[in-house]
Amino acid sequence: MSDAESPSDEFEPIDVFEDEETPDLRPGADSCYKCSTCDTNCPVAEVDDDFPGPKFQGPEQWRLKRKEDTSVDSSISKCSNCMRCDSACPSDVPLSQMHNTARAEYVDEELSKTSLTYWRNRILANYRTSAFLASKMPRIANFAMNFGPARWAMEKTLGVTSERDFPAFATETFREWWEREGGADGSRERAREARERRGEDVDAEKKVAYFHGCYANYNTPEVGKAMVRVFEHFGYELVVPEQRCSGTPMFANGMLEDAERHAKVNVSSMGDLVTQGYDAIASCTSCSMALRQEYPELFDIDGIEDLAENTWEALEYLRVQEDLSGELSAAVVEDEDLAELAYHAPCHARNQGLDGQALELFEDLAGVDAEDVGDSCSGISGTYGWKEEKYETSMKIGEEMFDHMEEAEGEVGMTECPTCAMQMEHGTGYEIKHPLEVVESALI
Amino acid sequence: MAFPGDPRSDAKVTRYAHALDGDADGERERLAAHVARVHEGEPRVGFPAVLGEDHPAEIRAALADALDADVFEVPMGPPSLPGIRLEYAYRDALGEAGVHVVRRPVVDYETDGDGRLTAAVVERNGQHVPHYADSFVLATGGLVGKGLDSDRGGVREPVFDCHVPHPADRYDWFVDDVYGEQPYPRFGVVVDDDLRPRDADGRIEFENLRAAGSVVGGHDFAAECSGTGVSLATGDAAGTAAGSDTQ
Ligand SMILES: Cc1cc2nc3c(=O)[nH]c(=O)nc-3n(C[C@H](O)[C@H](O)[C@H](O)COP(=O)(O)OP(=O)(O)OC[C@H]3O[C@@H](n4cnc5c(N)ncnc54)[C@H](O)[C@@H]3O)c2cc1C
Ligand code: SF4
Ligand code: SF4
């Protein structure tokens, strides 16, 4: 309506583009009508009175910052980037984009590059580098990373909490396994056989590029294997292109330059395949979130929109392309471990509208009873819960989920997100499965 | 009057509510004691609407008991706890009825080419996923809820592109008297007795589409104070009709 009130058609919106690369956040800030829904959905604000909440971090801070001498408030580093505010806002205010931009500016301008906090965050954000080194000698790394005195020193010098056990590194990474299974050629072979068995056109174009992310590669290759087996079962041939970190931990730590470097590699290798007709599939909901939403929101890289539009979460893809529910309702899971599952929907799955998916899919699956543990946040948010000063907040947020997990039948958990899985295990001692592993057990 | 435990002055309403929910330090009793000091036997005592998110009935009963008076809540500005409670109650009822909810915007639709909708296409961060159904209800709100979209060129209903009558000249959308008979709040889709939107020629837009709430035109909720009333009445009628169509 405001346009209509302007007296002439000469009206020009105020020019706020600082340069071509900076996203224009003004329309987002203007869309905020102060309903405070974001604030009541923020898990950090709920347990920490000193955190002013997303309404301030996003639209209000953006407006305050229009004044020359105002810098980004340090409370931005308390935001865990769970993005719940983003999906809660009824007015499409791009809150997480605003937080990511503000956080990057804060790290750039306010955080000393020689401070330990900066380097601690940088090391945590670049998990892939540590994981890569550790995977070269997984047994030693597993011992060293959880060696008491070393952990004490890490907490004292770097501020990495010693309350948590570092995740175990697999003795064989997913990519090593994939090569051993014959890589893309092996997959093509197996997919053709599956198509023949299914009575489909053997030459059908069913091709996907798998974005496994760091965690499925270095820590939980069983998730990657389940992904490969399930997709091949449906007649899809997979390729596993060169890839770097999705950037999720870097966004959350305000390291946008690091994230962009990695994003460029991913957009180039995944994007090429998309051009050739492949769909991009991720098994980690934070990775799919990054490729689909954060990349195009934050970076200007050739082919980024195309990749975003063709990226899917694994089960979401099969549900749309295949009769996944039908096959599952005719299947039986014999594995006793999967009989009772306490399911937690990761915040980033919620953001993609995928929070109900696993429960819906397993509703008619015999031998599996999956129970929702409520819509609270697990509290770990990637690297957040690893920081000594955030550990307590992280566990406070997680409390509601832990309680619900304890109340649920069975002692096995299920979630799509590797760091939520870490938190679930840490809080309850349960073993945690990925929905793909359940589908694998049902169909293969 | 101070709240027990002395929370910071700009504490969020949920902070008070959770303190009363948890009652870890006897907050309910302490709050009642604070009020009792100024309570002079009035039969009814009103509190700001912060009386719990999860256990409002228990909290109200505890306060009523302690004060020996009826206790009621006075709704406040956003965020509204009664609203949050209502949302939870709705979510629980849907869960019990076995309804799955997808919280992403509908951006497009599919038809059978014969005047019936077959699917609502939901956008998921770039993906477009059709959700199939026999019957559909459009309840996307008005100009605030984003069920109606406008720019200098015109006013539209963006999901199904239902007809929204409005003057061609945008200077006729409003009158200068702010509290006068404003045309724009009445913009919205035109429905028949069965709440089915009609096109510019009065024909049904889609056999199995109904509309409810602020997206329906013809009322000015602010001037008439009719917002929730229209929404509840049309929502009930549209939902019932859509439901009986699919039986
Ligand atoms: C500031 C203000 C104060 C008010 N105060 C009062 C009052 O005191 N009393 C009163 O009776 N009324 C009041 N009203 C009016 C009342 O709020 C509305 O009439 C009522 O909320 C309309 O309900 P609705 O369900 O039709 O739309 P909404 O409540 O607007 O809901 C529409 C929903 O649809 C969603 N949506 C929109 N587009 C899409 C899409 N493409 N796909 C999927 N979902 C979509 C939106 O996110 C939203 O959740 C007030 C309104 C405003 C703005
Ligand atoms: S991203 Fe999460 S933690 Fe950060 S402001 Fe939003 S809801 Fe709060
Ligand atoms: S939910 Fe959206 S519109 Fe509401 S206060 Fe937050 S940013 Fe503003």
Written overview of the protein:
The complex is a heterodimer of chains A (444) and B (247). Chain A is α/β, with parallel strands linked by helices and 444 residues long. Chain A has four domains: 26-109, Alpha-helical ferredoxin (Fumarate Reductase Iron-sulfur Protein, Chain B, domain 2, Orthogonal Bundle), CATH 1.10.1060; 116-158, no CATH class; 174-321; 332-443, 3-Layer(aba) Sandwich (Rossmann fold), CATH 3.40.50. Helices cover 54% and strands 7% of the residues of chain A. Chain A has 26 helices and eight strands. Chain A has helices spanning 2-5, 26-31, 37-41, 43-47, 54-64, 84-88, 95-109, 116-125, 127-136, 138-145, 148-158, 174-180, 183-197, 213-218, 221-233, 248-252, 256-275, 285-298, 304-309, 314-321, 324-329, 347-351, 357-362, 391-407, 418-428, 435-443; strands at residues 207-211, 237-239, 279-282, 311-313, 340-343, 369-372, 412-414, 431-433. In chain A, the strands form two sheets. Chain A has a four-stranded parallel β-sheet. In chain A, helix 25 (418-428) links the parallel strand 7 and strand 8 (431-433). The longest helix of chain A is centred in the middle third of the chain and has 20 residues, at 256-275. With 247 residues, chain B is of the alpha/beta class. A three-stranded antiparallel β-sheet of chain B has the order 3-4-5, with no helix packed on it. Chain B has helices at 13-22, 27-36, 56-67, 81-96, 221-224, 227-245, and strands at 44-48, 70-74, 106-111, 117-124, 127-132, 136-138, 149-151, 154-156, 209-211. In chain B, 29% of the residues lie in helices and 17% in strands. Chain B is elongated, with a radius of gyration of 23 Å. Chain B has three domains: 12-83, no CATH class; 102-133, no CATH class; 136-245, no CATH class. Classes of the chains: A alpha/beta (444), B alpha/beta (247). The A-B interface holds A 1, 3-5, 9, 33-37, 39-40, 45-46, 49, 53, 87, 90-92, 289, 292-293, 296, 308-312, 316, 320, 350-356, 359-360 and B 7-8, 11-15, 18, 78-79, 84, 100-104, 122, 124-127, 129, 143-146, 150-152, 170-171, 173-174, 184. Chain A: Residues 1-22 have a biased composition (Acidic residues). Chain A: Residues 68-101 form the 4Fe-4S ferredoxin-type domain. Chain A: GO terms for molecular function: 4 iron, 4 sulfur cluster binding; metal ion binding; oxidoreductase activity. Chain A: Keywords: 4Fe-4S, Iron, Iron-sulfur, Metal-binding, Repeat. Chain A: Residues 1-28, 180-199 are annotated as: Disordered.
